User: Fold this.
Amino acid sequence: MPIQIKSDREIALMKESGRLLSLVHKEVEKAIKPGVSTGELDKLAYDMIKGFGCTPNFLNYGGFPGTLCTSINNTVVHGFPSYDAVLKEGDIVSIDAGLIYKGYHSDAARTHAVGKISKEAQDLIRRTEQSFFEGIKFAKAGNHLFDISNAIDDYISQFGYGIVKDMCGHGVGTALHEDPEIPNYRQHRKGALLKPGMTLAIEPMINLGGWEVDIDEWKCVTSDGSISAHYENTVLITEGEPVLLTGDARTESF
Assistant:
């Protein structure tokens, strides 16, 4: 399928979808602490999204049971929220969330520390986030899709981390998952030419250990039990610099 180019009207709707999602992420982050369950975080996000008059786009997507993907420690993505999953001091937890505003999807993920965490966990979270920013240096009209992938790989590989190969980024718009797929590891092709109006969910998933993962129907965990971090934004390709539609304190000034 050709990559969809969004009109000015569609971009305006996606910007609002992303703005609202960024507010959800900020409130969920405030609630993360030892003793809080991922079920409580999920309810907070659900109530906020419904309060905006929007729809949680993960809930019931292919049978997924939650508003948030809450992935703790060695869970890479697609962890189910539960009142039995209580966060502990030293954990890391990735929060992947999205919503639908007037028919348009936003998608973003952040990995957070629970209380005080190890230096290696801090470094993994920080470097996973930085790999996203290294990638979007190339998210410009006239470049190619896999310039983004290669930049992420070039940055991460120096640390010896594993880049998950079984999951990747994607286009986003009137559907949660649109073309193209966006790998986070080096490609030997150019990929599609980037054009203004493309909206992409770019999302490095990086393991402290090897890249290999085990996947059941949903949950994806590292094969070696090492911890994993995830960082994602919905990105608009423009004539100039990329616009992060799900920006936070750092990305708003990108």
